[in-house]
Design a protein that fits this description.
GO terms for molecular function: asparaginase activity. The structure is a single chain. This protein has about 350 residues and is an alpha+beta fold. The chain has a domain at about 10-55 and about 160-340: Beta-lactamase (3-Layer(aba) Sandwich), CATH 3.40.710. Helix content is about 35%, strand content about 20%. Strands 1, 2, 3, 7, 8, 9, 10, 11 and 12 form a 9-stranded antiparallel β-sheet that branches. Helix 4 packs across helix 5 (about 90-100), helix 5 packs parallel to helix 7 (about 140-155) and helix 8 crosses helix 9 (about 200-210). The longest helix is centred in the middle third of the chain and has 16 residues, at about 220-235. The two termini are about 40 Å apart.
Length: about 350
């Protein structure tokens, strides 16, 4: 597949004392649940791996089995299953709680181990000589949801991360339906946590999130799972990422208006809830430092967020992230400059 039908566009400037020091190019696309192209910049057909941005879709099969009812998973535990969490003690305890409910422990997690994203937790662990375990991995919740399906269906537990495993084949089939692509057309790679990752055009990724946030138009078997994913993520934004991170701060501020999930190598997917829109953004160089700013600028140009919203205390550092020196002095900013081509017939829904 060709990566581009059009070249990427200028997405953001990195300014130091008003001099442009660096630039980030990006592609962005806005699609409604019917597949109508609402707006774009760069190439809607840019093919990229969605990385962790696909986690809300990967949680759908677990909820189709009603495993939240079967095992008593709470909304907080479902949120962590959709998360790239920061590895705080709260995140870790929720993962361990969900594992206990399916009769497993952390030894079954095949995601590997890394230091928590949350700096205070990482320092606490070092100071107290606490052993890092797989539950601290940002993808441990997603893996727990996969293991729950294996326990329920009596599928092999040790190999659940492999592409030919029933749980991965089932996930691929279902997410492909959201992408409106045959499974064999989805590019497959291996994610940082070891499970299959999906490569699709940004258009199809945005379409999937448009549908995810409009459960009433979905086939019956997807309606309740999609609703639960949105409810869990928007009700508990701090569990989806962590303090200071874009997904958490963005969803926390807008209180149920958006479902947001980022992925490694600078991918962002957003569902505009109750408006049938999906948004996909990719920063070409893989740097996430401008990703939230570009995403907010896309929403601003669509009229879905206001200048007051993005320049307010809660989001100003997401919209124009500060550049700091080692003395923690602000010496510049990252400024989004992406320009959307918007369908002139489209209007913001009230």
């Amino acid at each position: 597949m060709e990566d581009y039908a059009n070249p990427p566009t200028l997405g953001a400037l990195v300014l130091r004392n008003e001099l442009t020091e660096s630039v980030h190019y990006a592609d962005a696309v806005v699609v409604d649940y019917k597949g109508r192209l609402i707006a774009s910049a760069g190439s809607p057909q840019r093919v990229t791996f969605l990385r962790s941005a696909s986690k809300p879709l990967q949680a759908i099969p677990m909820l189709m089995d009603k495993l939240d009812i079967q095992y008593g998973f709470t909304m907080e535990e479902i949120a962590v299953m959709c998360a790239s969490h920061s590895g705080t003690l709260e995140h870790v305890e929720l993962v361990r709680s969900a594992l206990k409910k399916i009769g497993l422990d952390e030894s079954y997690l095949q995601c590997g181990v890394h230091e928590p994203f949350d700096k205070s937790t990482a320092e606490f662990i070092k100071l107290n000589n606490i052993e890092l375990t797989p539950a601290f991995h940002n993808c441990s919740g997603k893996h727990t949801g996969m293991l729950a399906q294996c326990v329920y269906h009596k599928w092999p537990l040790q190999t659940y991360f492999l592409l030919d495993h029933p749980v991965q084949q089932r996930i691929l089939k279902i997410v492909s339906e959201f992408f409106e692509m045959p499974p064999e057309k989805v590019e497959i790679g291996i994610d940082g946590c070891g499970v299959p990752v999906f490569g699709v055009p940004l258009y199809n990724a945005a379409l999937a999130f448009a549908k995810l946030g409009t459960p009433e138009i979905l086939p019956e078997e997807y309606k309740e799972p999609a609703s639960k994913v949105a409810m869990a993520m928007t009700r508990y934004p701090h569990l989806v990422a962590g303090k200071g991170r874009f997904d958490t701060e963005f969803m926390l501020f807008f209180q149920g208006a958006f479902l947001s999930k980022g992925g490694a190598e600078a991918v962002q997917l957003v569902s505009v809830l109750n408006r049938g829109l999906g948004i996909a953004v990719k920063v070409v160089d893989g740097s996430s430092r401008a990703l939230g700013a570009i995403t907010l600028e896309v929403l601003r140009q669509l009229g879905l967020v206001t200048d007051e919203d993005i320049h307010g205390e809660a989001l100003k550092n997401q919209y124009q992230p500060p550049v700091k020196n080692h003395r923690q002095e602000v010496v510049g900013i990252i400024k989004p400059v992406i320009k959307l081509k918007v369908d002139p017939g489209w209007k913001v829904l009230s």
